[in-house]
Write a structure and sequence with these properties.
- With 477 residues, the protein is α/β, with parallel strands linked by helices.
- It contains twelve helices and 21 strands.
- The two termini are 49 Å apart.
- About 16% of the residues have low confidence.
Length: 477
Amino acid sequence: MRAVEISKPGGPEVLQPVERPKPSPKDGEILIKVAAAGVNRPDVLQRSGNYAVPPDASDLPGLEVAGEVVSPGKTFKVGDKVCALVHGGGYAEFCVTPEVQALPVPKGLSLVEAASLPETFFTVWGNVFDRGRLAPGETLLVQGGSSGIGVSAIQMATAMGNRVFATAGSDDKVAACKRLGAVEAFNYKTQDFEKEIQRATGGKGVDVILDMVGGDYVPKELKCIAEDGRLVFIAYLRGPKTELAIDLVMRKRLTLTGSTLRPRPVAFKGAIARSLREKIWPLIERGKIKPEIYKTFPLAQAADAHRLMESSQHIGKIVLTLLCSGFALQPLDEGVHLGTLRRVPADDHEVGPRRIRHALERRDELLRIDQVLDERAAAERDAVPGDRGRDDLLVAREGKRARGPQAGDAGDFQPGLPVQPRMAHVRIVVLQQHVVLQILGLLQRQLLQQLRAAHRENALTEEPHRLRPGERRRPMA
């Protein structure tokens, strides 16, 4: 299988595409064919050598995935779409996970969206709701509200009936926090969050603080937390050491706690998964909580994804894609990805808005792929004069031509024959046109179904049409 490994501790450039054996699930585990994998801060720390990998974990980075079950367990069967918290190994085409750490993809979400959920949702539930004991009606301050964990915490707490405040590092990020549900958000570069919290809460302070900053933030947090409040640490971006006013902790009866997720036992993570499925998944399916994805990258461009995370320019999650809207993205030698196609028959009964939406998503993915190919082709034209030919489009396994979708086909496209083009030869526009034709075909078939149903209904309720002299009977649709 294809994967991305950390060749040695260092910068993003040490993330290298490799071939690895496909993992085999143990008792209690399932094997997932990965469609997308979330990028998280621990991945960056592991890559730089500042995060020790547990001895029983995969050395490959990646703590959350979404995809299709290919080796079943007791709950999930082959073909089920799941997202899962994994013990490493997410940056690969296949990944194993304890079955109790997997959850069904919430209705209405794509696999890419689902891949952005597990790590942050498990972390927020375990720290804000379990350790922090945030109760309905209480207030929460999220430090770093525009991060992946931050946007999850804001949405989850808001949907559970809490008032949420947040800090962020720019006015755009502050606006994003408010859009996601924070009643107020503060730019920590231009505002004093301690004073702002005191003002916003009438001097009472907040009941729970989720802190991923640490360092010199802690003394200020102790001043803006309410009596019997809980301060929960999940990271320390500004350092692990701080000054602590013990008398303030005593007088306010504060609880200072924190946790890490990865070393915890499977049973603990399974309990969180059950809580999420019971309490949070229904809110996602009702649209109360929505994944906030900033940008996606093909797997082989994991280094670029890490550079973006380290820049802190993102709002929400960064996701690596291996399978997007029916296309398996195959890493090529030159670092560009192209989808693979296999046409399968369509069922008349499956034509509907969901199929049409998937076709539109495939069109968008093709447009993104085409943009990448254009950039690579332009670079090659600059390096090598003359036209190197554009005849080779799709070369299938065993040297045969891959058959793309035909005009008028209403079939769905699923991963199949791998595409092995040379970059200067590839044009994806033809595939875009086929997908557009597919969308039109779906719409046409849906309309015909409606017309046939209406005709059958009219035939039962209306009197037969009497032919006039010289008039010919029209054939039934």
